[in-house]
Structure formats: structure tokens, C-alpha cells
Amino acid sequence: QVQLVESGGGLVQAGGSLRLSCAASGSIFSINVMGWYRQAPGKQRELVADITRGGSTRYSDSVKGRFTISRDNAKKMVYLQMNSLKPEDTAVYYCNAAGVRLLPSLAVRDYWGQGTQVTVSS
To answer: What is the mean pLDDT of the chain?
Structure first.
């Protein structure tokens, strides 16, 4: 059983910062890509940023220059540093682990966390 647990969400004023963390646990051999998605009310879930095992990153245009994703492969954790937050960043943020290779079967699966609310007030 693999679990992703997010933390770090909350309420912040526009221009402020938050840092999200996500910890993966369970019988994991490796994780290919870890990322953050968000879903605002009435909108589809969208990619915010992701990072490969090797450290390659990609960001949505709306967060480039403001958000930074990083990961610790040994701890199986991914982080999202969010600066210069805007009211339009308000959403539930979900951690995603894609290409998780499991032990002992070495089967590959994708997993989602339960989400953490980020609210940015104007």
C-alpha cells in the first residue's frame, strides 16, 4: 500500500509564501515523476509543476518564476515553494507520484494524495 500525504497548505495574504510538502510511504522501489496539481472550484485539475528522479522540472506558465519544485529521492518527498502568491492560486493542491515501481512485484502504478487547501486572500 502506497500513501502520499501532503502538508503545508493554509490561508495567506496575496504576495505571501507557502511551502507544500508531500511524503510518499509504502513498499516503494522508486518513483519516476513527482508533481503537484491543483483544482479550483468549478475548474479542472491542472498541472502546477513536476520533477523527474533526475531533477528535470516543468512548470505551468501561470506559476513560472514564482513557484519552485524540489524533491528528496532518499526521503521520497517532494516540495513546492510558492512565493508571490495571488488570489488565483487558491485551490486544492494534490501531490502526484507517477511511475511508482513497487516492491516486491516491481509493478508500476500512479498515486494521488488527498489534497491540501491553499487559500490566498486579496
So the answer is: 97
